[in-house]
Amino acid sequence: MSEHTPGIPGYTYGTDEAARSPLSLEDLERLKAVAGLTPEDEEALREAAGILAGQAGDMVTAWRARLGELSFMRPYSGHPDGTPNPEYGAASKPRFDRFIIDACTRPLDRDWLNYQHEIGLRHTRAKKNRTDHADSLDHIPMRYLLAFTAVVITTAREYLAATGATAERVDRMHAAFTKSVMLHVTVWTRACTGAAGW
């Protein structure tokens, strides 16, 4: 699951097409330490991958539906006037689905850093809309990216519990997933701020 790179348009993980992250591997190790991500968490994430992989599409659909309920968020994924853009949604969804699997399986290395920076840039004027040739608003404010992380994290728990894992196992996987998502989003924000502020 972690080694296979699916033929998803715009999914440039591990390729020269992904942006080069300005962060060093030392920066990454420090972030892992601050987030408290441990080898035990990485083991729990691998277990979570087996549960979440088959539900990733449903998770993303639910998250997008929640965003769609907020009129002020619609222009970021639809047309600038807020009307839906099904083509853009269909093109970008497989990458969003894959994010859930990657968050549980990818090794935290240079390829990981580079692709997370690429994702960050795709939320900013530097690369927003370019991958899918969309016409939505050209920048997602960092405040919304950070705030929506709460939804991603809290709703993941019900999906982790869906196969009947014990409460203790669910707690362990959910804690690890929380750390992983926070690490991802933290690295994405580097594309939104200058080096001094970040």
From TrEMBL:
Gene3D superfamilies: Globins. One of its GO terms (molecular function) is heme binding. Residues 26-192 form the Globin-sensor domain. It comes from the Bacteria. InterPro entries: Globin-like_sf (IPR009050), Globin-sensor_dom (IPR044398), Globin/Proto (IPR012292). This is Globin-sensor domain-containing protein.
